[in-house]
Design a protein that fits this description.
By secondary structure, this protein is an alpha/beta fold. The chain has one domain: Acetylglutamate kinase-like (Carbamate kinase), CATH 3.40.1160.10. The protein is about 40% helix and about 15% strand. It contains eight helices and ten strands. The chain has helices spanning about 15-30, 50, 60-80, 105-110, 130-140, 175-180, 185-195, 210-215, and strands at about 35-40, 85-90, 100, 115-120, 145-150, 155, 170, 170-175, 200-205, 220-225. The strands form three sheets. A four-stranded parallel β-sheet has the order 1-4-2-3, sandwiched between helices. A four-stranded mixed β-sheet has the order 5-9-10-8. Helix 6 runs antiparallel to helix 7 (about 185-195). The longest helix has 25 residues, at about 60-80. It is globular, with a radius of gyration of 17 Å.
Length: about 230
Amino acid sequence: MSGEALAGAGDYGIDDAVLQVFANEIRDVHALGIEIAVVIGGGNIFRGLSGTKHGIERATADYMGMLATIINALALQAAIERSGVQTRVLSALEMKEVAEPYIRRRATRHLEKNRVVIFAAGTGNPFFTTDTAASLRAIEIGAEVLIKATKVDGVYDSDPMKNPSARRYTELTYLDVLSQKLGVMDSTAISLCMDNQLPVLVFNLLVPGNLKRVVQGETIGTLVRGAVP
């Protein structure tokens, strides 16, 4: 889940109304009996790459970004639990007073117990994006699909905000994304998904009910997967 999306119409911080909408979307899908794990970004508070522009060493800036994801994860946990669903935050950076440490078997056990799991602090390492963390965690827990929930309704051949004629793809292969540099996710994240045959679905979470429609099989957004036989 994009951290920027939590800011709503603003440029910074957490919009309470947007946060609760996201929590309700997760609740509705959880009610279908689907196991859900969420990896959340921190771009609404701090982005590691932006920190380097202010003279902060890249590794330090990335750690600051990881801390921002923990703030978002705790906020999302509170919102989901307000909607009546048990939720656990697992952090790649040890912060035992506020979150459990990330342990793969613990994460899968929480899912088996019908809890929503939120993965915070990325991979715990600098120089890796939230997209890479999402790909890694999805593969580790044996997820069936990696859903990238953003503020856009799929992947386009050019920026739809700048080009009104931009064309949205309904389906792409991993190699299409890499060769055309489409910017769905960074190359490390896409390569991980390709190597492990993990499909990626990109869609707009700001449209109410979209997450539920997606998991019920409606054609929404853009699906990235291996070549169709």
